[in-house]
Specification:
The chain is mainly alpha-helical and 139 residues long. It has a domain of 85 residues: Herpes Virus-1. The protein is 56% helix and 7% strand. It has a three-stranded antiparallel β-sheet with strand order 2-1-3. Strand 1 and strand 2 form a beta hairpin. The protein is elongated. The structure holds zinc ion (2 copies). One zinc ion binds next to loops. It holds the Pfam family zf-C3HC4.
Amino acid sequence: MLKRRRGQNASINPALEHIEVDADILRASLTCEMCKNILREANTVTECLHSFCFQCISSKMIVGQSNYCPACGSSDSSLGVNPFLDKKIITDGRKNHLCQTFREMLEEKEVVEDGKGEKEGGEKEGEKKGEEQASMEEA
Ligand SMILES: [Zn+2]
Ligand SMILES: [Zn+2]
C-alpha cells in the first residue's frame, strides 16, 4: 500500500515537482555564503568550493596576511597572502552564468505573474497570432 501511495503522489505532476526541486538546489548552490543572496560576480574558493560574491569575498581578504575561507572559518586550509593572485580564489564564470540565468528566470516569473492580474487583452492578441500562424502552415 505504501508503495502505491508514493507512486500516486509522484505522478500527480512529476514535471512540476522536478522543477521545484531543481530551483531549490540551484538557489542553494548559487547563494553567497556571506550575504545569502544570489551570487554577484561569483568567486569560488578552490580549496573547499565555497562561493561568494566578488565584493563579499574581497572585503574579507587582506593582501599580505594569511587568509581563510569565511564560510569554513577554520585555519585548516590557508588561502595564502594573496588568494586571488595565487588562484586560491577564482572567478567562477560558469557559476556566474548560472546565476544570471537564474536571476532572469526569477524576474521572468514575476513579470508573468504580474501581467496575468492586470491585462486580459494581451492573451487574446496572442491567440490570434497563433491562429494566423496555424492557417499559414496549413496552406
Ligand atoms: Zn555575497
Ligand atoms: Zn570554505
